[in-house]
Design a protein that fits this description.
Elements lengths: L4 E4 L13 E4 L3 E5 L18 H18 L7 E9 L3 H15 L6 E6 L9 E10 L3
Helix pairs in contact: 1-2
């Protein structure tokens, strides 16, 4: 059965972006929406205060765990939103590089935002995702 997710790289748009510009989900598929994955350890403590890259790695590990609980994998992701508590573009790029590397060749559309503050003490990164999982397989 074919994959329900098709990532679209749009030749008419710049190839500078390191993600597909659009994703199409073909039926039959079950959508999975995650909460923002935060850089928290198993005890609910924010890991690596001040370190955007380390927090992004923890957020992605937590995202992968949440996806697995819903029967999804990173290659099922069709869209991400990455929040970085910083007004410095270099900090956004640092977090983005971790997110991009996590997905490897699977490059779902993504939005990267610099925000003033996130919900937990010392939190710098949060990542939410939408995934599509084949049904009826």
């Amino acid at each position: 059965m074919p994959d329900p997710v098709a990532l679209l790289h749009v030749p008419a748009l710049s190839d500078v972006a390191e993600y597909a510009y659009a994703a199409v989900v073909e039926p039959p598929a079950r959508l999975v929406f995650t909460a923002g994955a935060c850089p928290l350890d198993a005890d609910g403590r924010t890991v690596a205060p001040g370190d955007h890259a380390a927090q992004a790695r923890q957020a992605m590990a937590n995202l992968e765990t949440a996806l697995a609980a819903a029967g999804a994998t990173p290659t099922d992701v069709v869209k991400t939103t990455v929040y970085v508590a910083s007004s410095q573009q270099k900090d956004l790029v640092t977090a983005w590089n971790v997110v991009r590397d996590f997905f490897g060749d699977h490059d779902p559309p993504s939005t990267l935002l610099g925000v003033a503050v996130l919900g937990y003490a010392d939190q710098l990164v949060e990542v939410e995702a939408v995934a599509a999982v084949r049904t009826g397989a």
